[in-house]
Structures are given as C-alpha cells and as structure tokens.
Amino acid sequence: MKKFRLSKLIIIFIAFFLLSGSLIFLISKNKSLRKNISFFVDDGVTIVKEMVDVPIYFVNKTFSNISELFNTYRENDNLREQILEFETKDREYQMLLEENRELRSELEIKESFSGLNVLTGRVILRSPVAWLDNVTIDIGERDGVLDHMFLVSEGGLAGKVEKVNTSTTDITLITNLSSTDGIPVKIKTNKDDVYGILTDYNEKDNLLVISQLNTRGVISSGDEVFTSGLDGQSPSDISVGKVKIIDDKEALNIKIYVVPTVDFSHLSYVSLIGE
Asked: How far apart are CA 135 and CA 153, in angstroms?
C-alpha cells in the first residue's frame, strides 16, 4: 500500500515537472504569449497592490486627520490661554491707569486747597444694598480726621463725615442727604451768587436737588455750583456740579436740579477736606 502511494507521488511530481518545463519552454519561444503573460502578471500585481494600498492610505489619512484635529485643539487651547492672559494683563493695566489718574487727581486737590486740612484715603467698604447711601474709608481719628470734613473725589463733592472712628471714617454721600443735614451751596451766575441748600437727590435722572434759595436771581442752565461754607464749619469752593433744570413752578419753593461733578458709580481713592 505504501509503495503504491509512493509511486503515485513520483508520477505526479514527474508530470508536474514535465508540464512546468513544457510551459516554460513554450513561453520562452513565444514572445506574444510571454508578453501577454507578463501583462497579466503585472495587472494582477497592480490590482493586488491597489487592494493593499487603498486600505493603508485610508488608515494613514484617517490617522493624519485625527492628528491634525488634536493639533488644532491644542492650538485653540493655547490661543485661548494667550487671549485670557492678555485680557487679564489688559484689565490690570487699565486698573493701574485708573488708580494713577485718581491719585494724580487727589494730589491736585491737595495743591488746590493748600490752605486747608487735606487727607487722602481709600474706600474700603461700600454695600451694594446702600450703594448711594454710605461708604467707609481707611483713615480715621488717628490720621487727623475731624467732624464736618467733606469727602471729595476727582475734584468734586461726594459726601460728608458722618462718624469718625479710630482708623476708619463713615461717610454719608450727598446722594443720601435730607433737609436736616443739607449742605450749604452757592450757584455762580453771570451776576451775583445765589445761595441755597443741597438737600435731595433724584436717582432716576442722577440729579442733585438744591432748594431754600435766598433769591431767584438769574440762574441759567450750565451755571456752576460750589459749596459755600456758610454754616461756618465746612470748607467752601468745592465743586458740586452744574445746573441743568430750574423748576420755578412754585415761587416759594424753587428747585434747582444739578448734574453732579462726581461719578458715584466709582469711588476709590478720595480726599477729606476741612478747616
């Protein structure tokens, strides 16, 4: 049985060898056949190569796109960080500019009121609930603060001393005055000064209200208003604002509406001025 199998294998091998040799001989003698077979082989190789290359190209392209996407994300993150850093530095720069401007303004106040007691401080407490009522500043009795001193910001009247503590002072803003604690003022007209009392504030229109005038005078829109010091305790000639509206409908109760010099939305570095 084993001899039969061996003989069969030998016969198959010899037949395969003869067939292969005959095929090679025919191909070598027949240029046309050799050329066709070469084309066939080349086409087959090309097809196989394309079948292999296309998936590889797709995979490479996909990974390349993913890599570019991650690079884009990283670049965007870096750009966001740079923009955030720039915005932070810009805010800090603007704050420093504002602080410098305020300090220069307070220095000018000291020069303008050189004959008076001028102290410079900073607002350290201002409640959002009572934004236009009161503030607390970081100087007090030990710094020389006295009653009847006026709070000045950027050259304009902002408030008056309410309570002096050892190291701080509570201030009533002029947007929170009443008829009992009004501030004597004067309106500079083309003729004589007109005197009155600053007693109220119109929050809706952001206008200070002056009443109790000593005379109607010839008050015009744009006339400047200053403190008068007629109470004998407070300093005079501090800017309050400019006349905007004259309400003389009631002859015995004329009211003058004034645009304040001070921007009450922002109080930071301030001065106290007193005799």
From this structure: 12
